[in-house]
Inverse folding.
């Protein structure tokens, strides 16, 4: 089996072992956040930072449905001047938590994405979130690390190859965004049917 074939085979095997109960917990938490008009914050480093930004893009745009309230979501990875300011003046470990201190409202959700689960800045963001009563979610790979231990909802990918972990996290985020959009659309149907009945 060549390298390319092996890579995709390992991705497929990991997806087949995806913990469905944990995935559903994450999906339920995002839907509950939408129902209460909470903000979904997402953070990560490196490839996971790209996944965080992409996830927020999809949560914000893919879920748009006519007549429906839009999803509140922010990627804590995207304000580069602010990230560099906190890194330079204080600590890179504080780049996410310091943003949360300014933006967080009661009932918001914090999603941290980390292959290793041990990045200090995402761990600190989740620790802070737990302390203030946020709903905290951790997407991890490898052994899950500290993030998997402390996140209220943990979705751990049983894979030890970083590019593959990042691929699967991206796939999960796509699935979650599509699922949330479908839930929003379904929630509108009673109102649509009622309007048709009244008009008819």
């Amino acid at each position: 089996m060549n390298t390319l074939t092996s890579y995709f085979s390992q991705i497929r095997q990991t997806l087949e072992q995806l913990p469905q109960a944990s995935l559903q917990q994450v999906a339920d938490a995002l839907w509950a956040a939408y129902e209460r008009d909470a903000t979904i914050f997402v953070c990560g480093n490196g490839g996971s930072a790209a996944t965080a930004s992409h996830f927020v893009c999809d949560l914000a745009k893919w879920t748009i449905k006519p007549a429906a309230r839009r999803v509140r979501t922010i990627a804590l990875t995207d304000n580069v001047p602010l990230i560099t300011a906190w890194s330079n003046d204080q600590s890179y470990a504080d780049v996410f938590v310091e943003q949360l201190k300014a933006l967080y409202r009661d009932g918001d959700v914090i999603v941290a994405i980390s292959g290793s689960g041990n990045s200090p800045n995402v761990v600190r963001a989740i620790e802070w979130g737990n302390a203030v009563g946020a709903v905290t979610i951790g997407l991890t790979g490898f052994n899950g690390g500290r993030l998997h231990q402390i996140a209220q909802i943990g979705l751990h990918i049983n894979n030890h190859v970083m590019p593959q972990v990042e691929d699967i996290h991206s796939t999960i985020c796509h699935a979650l965004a599509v699922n949330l959009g479908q839930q929003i659309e379904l929630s509108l149907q009673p109102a649509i049917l009622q309007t048709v009945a009244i008009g008819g």
Notes: The chain is about 60% helix and 15% strand. The helical segments are 3-16, 20-35, 47-61, 80-89, 97-103, 120-132, 145-150, 162-199.
